[in-house]
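Severity: low
Component: inverse-folding endpoint
Summary: output formatting inconsistent between runs
Steps to reproduce: submit the following structure tokens with default settings.
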């Protein structure tokens, strides 16, 4: 575990998974919470979680833990999520609603991932 890279990022993602599960628990048990918790929090958390999963996949395939996700790929992920979940799916099902604030949350999550990944790279060098 000592040689495991990006410890701060992984700690953040683990915390994000716990928060996500708590939000799902609040929904399941119909516990009242502020609207932003149900409407935007998971959108903020999803990009770092998915990008970290993608990073682990690249590490596994390439057998190289020095690989990092570049800014273009992070932006592409944000755009993909924005188009699919805020444009396409709302046209397909009433369960989904298009919301510009969700796009903002995806972008902020992408920024958090990028900063945590870069911050650790600078401290490792």
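Observed output (run 2 of 3):
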């Amino acid at each position: 575990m000592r040689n495991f890279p990006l410890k701060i990022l992984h700690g953040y993602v683990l915390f994000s998974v716990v928060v996500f599960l708590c939000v799902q628990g609040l929904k399941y048990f119909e516990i009242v919470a502020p609207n932003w918790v149900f409407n935007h929090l998971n959108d903020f958390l999803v990009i770092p979680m998915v990008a970290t999963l993608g990073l682990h996949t690249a590490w596994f395939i390439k057998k190289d833990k020095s690989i990092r996700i570049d800014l273009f790929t992070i932006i592409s992920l944000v755009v993909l999520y924005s188009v699919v979940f805020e444009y396409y799916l709302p046209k397909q099902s009433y369960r989904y609603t298009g919301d510009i604030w969700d796009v903002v949350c995806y972008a902020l999550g992408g920024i958090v991932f990028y900063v945590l990944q870069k911050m650790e790279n600078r401290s490792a060098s």
